[in-house]
Amino acid sequence: MSAPVLPTPVQAMVDAINTADTEAFVAAFTPNGFVTDWGTVKSGPDGVRSWAVSDAIGAGARMTVLSSETDGDTTHVRFGWSSRVFNGESDGIFVVEGDKVASFTIPPAH
C-alpha cells in the first residue's frame, strides 16, 4: 500500500513534525495561519509555534497520514499520532492558501 499523496504545503507540515523541526513547522503556515485542536485555537506564528512546542514537536510527536482526500484547497486526512501528549488516530482538516497551510484543524472526536 502506498502512502497518501498530500498537497506540498501539507506534506511540509507533516515532515516538519516528523523531523522535529519547529522552524520548518512554523514556516509551513501563512502569516495568519492557525491550528485548532479540539476547539482551542492557536493563531499566527507565535500561536502555531506554541502548539508545536506543547502538543507536537515538543511532545516528541510522530504523525502518520493513513488516508487523505483533497477537494480544492481543503484536504481531509485520517492520521495516526504518537507523542507524550496523545496516542491514537484522529481526523484532520487542512486548508491551503498558495504554497502554505492556512489552517490545520483537529476536530473533537465523536
Secondary-structure element order, N to C: HHEEHEEEE
Structural class of the helices, strands and pairings?
A: alpha+beta
**Tally of helical runs:** 3
What CATH calls the topology is Nuclear Transport Factor 2, Chain: A
The percentage of residues in β strands lies in: over 45%
Architecture in CATH?
Roll
In helices, the fraction of residues equals: 25-40%
Q: What integer is the average pLDDT? A: 96
Distance between the termini: 28 Å
Main sheet summary: 6 strands, mixed
Anisotropy-based shape = globular
Radius of gyration: 12 Å
Parts with pLDDT < 50 across at least 5 consecutive residues: none
How are the strands ordered across the major sheet?
A: 2-1-6-5-4-3
Number of domains: 1
Give me the count of strands: 6
Name the CATH class: Alpha Beta
InterPro entries: NTF2-like_dom_sf
Protein name: SnoaL-like domain-containing protein
Structure, described:
A hairpin with a 2-residue loop joins strand 1 (29-37) and strand 2. It is globular, with a radius of gyration of 12 Å. The chain has one domain: Roll (Nuclear Transport Factor 2, Chain: A), CATH 3.10.450.50. It has helices spanning 8-18, 22-27, 44-55, and strands at 29-37, 40-43, 62-71, 74-82, 87-97, 100-106. It is built from 3 helices and 6 strands, in the order H-H-E-E-H-E-E-E-E. The protein starts with 7 loop residues before the first helix and ends with a strand. Helices cover 26% and strands 45% of the residues. The protein has a 6-stranded mixed beta sheet with strand order 2-1-6-5-4-3. With 110 residues, the protein is α+β, with helices and mostly antiparallel strands. The longest helix is centred in the middle third of the chain and has 12 residues, at 44-55. This is SnoaL-like domain-containing protein.
